[in-house]
Amino acid sequence: MNQTSKLIDVIKNNGGYITANEIQKRNINRHHLRTLIEAGEVIRISRGFYSLKDSFADNFYIMLSKSKKAIFSDATALYLHNLSDRNPSVYDITVPYSAGNSYKKEKNVNLHYVKKELLNLGLIEMESPFGMKIRVYDVERTICDIIKNKNKMDSEVFARALQKYSKLKSKDLNKLMRYAKPLKIDKKVREYMEVLI
């Protein structure tokens, strides 16, 4: 099997996508990637990120491919955790204060900034609706984030998400309060939970 065919197989086995770093890790010469782009077999989606021409567009995966530090949060995370039925047209993404340049020109991204030490609080990996691995905050961190950013949210989405969370059998109130403290919203979170539960 030649290197160009090998690269196509690698991309297919990766859900139709590949990054420049993955190509380098597999010791495949970048010349083969250029050959596939020129032939129209591979499309450059963004800097260092490519897909097969006929791959179904997984916008969740594509959005996060722009930065290793980006994490889905707020209303987007609510949707991914089935706490909202509104498929996002604007993606809520959290990055550290030092990052986010990759998204400056994106009109469909709502950037949230946090201190570097809070970035990974509640971070999990899950599958996008199309089966690709994406970074997202867990349910408890998401609830903390929407309470913190309540004034920037749709009030109906906010209220419904809190009601759904209160009914979850898997909810972890101890974890919720553990997250609320470093985010400096423990008093607010406690007030909401006392009303709901």
Can you characterise this structure?
The chain is α+β, with helices and mostly antiparallel strands. The chain folds into 2 domains: 3-55, Arc Repressor Mutant, subunit A, CATH 1.10.10; 67-196, no CATH class. Helices cover 41% and strands 18% of the residues. The chain has 9 helices and 8 strands. It has helices spanning 3-13, 20-25, 30-38, 59-64, 74-80, 139-148, 155-167, 173-180, 186-196, and strands spanning 17-19, 42-46, 49-52, 71-72, 91-96, 109-114, 123-127, 133-137. A 3-stranded antiparallel β-sheet has the order 1-3-2. A 3-stranded mixed β-sheet has the order 4-5-6. It starts with a helix and ends with a helix. The mean pLDDT is 90.
List descriptors.
9 helices, Arc Repressor Mutant, subunit A, 197 residues, three-stranded mixed sheet, 2 domains, elongated, alpha+beta, 8 strands
Approximately how much helix is present in the residues?
40-55%
The low-pLDDT segments are none
Q: Give the termini separation.
A: 61 Å
* Integer-rounded radius of gyration: 19 Å
- The assigned structural class equals alpha+beta
Strand content: 15-25%
Reported for the largest beta sheet, the result is: 3 strands, antiparallel
User: How many separate helices?
Assistant: 9
Could you state the order of secondary-structure elements as H and E? HEHHEEHEHEEEEHHHH
Number of strands: 8
Number of domains: 2
